[in-house]
Amino acid sequence: MDIDYKNKKLRDLCEKRAVAEKRLGTVCARKLRSRLSELEAASQVTDLVAGHPHPLEGYRAGQFALDLAGGWRLVFAPDQDPCPRHADGSIDWSQITILLIEYIGDYHD
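^ thats the sequence. predicted structure below, dont judge the formating
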């Protein structure tokens, strides 16, 4: 899949190892690199297995999360226009091929 970033800060966190290790710690930074590699290699979101992949609800409806370490999550959303949807209006994650990384952190705080 193709990956875009919400902003430069997230791009740097995902693409620069030193930045990730400083902000997230070594273990979480390693998990982040692993999850990003898995996203790039997957043909669709529904192919993901590692990181407890799950769609989010509430104010994060329309987003998907992967576990990193220590309660931190990698959160992304579809970056396609139009966004593929099921008849009930929900996102058809099996048709998503472009992702937007929106957040990395612990959204439970």
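The mean pLDDT is 89.
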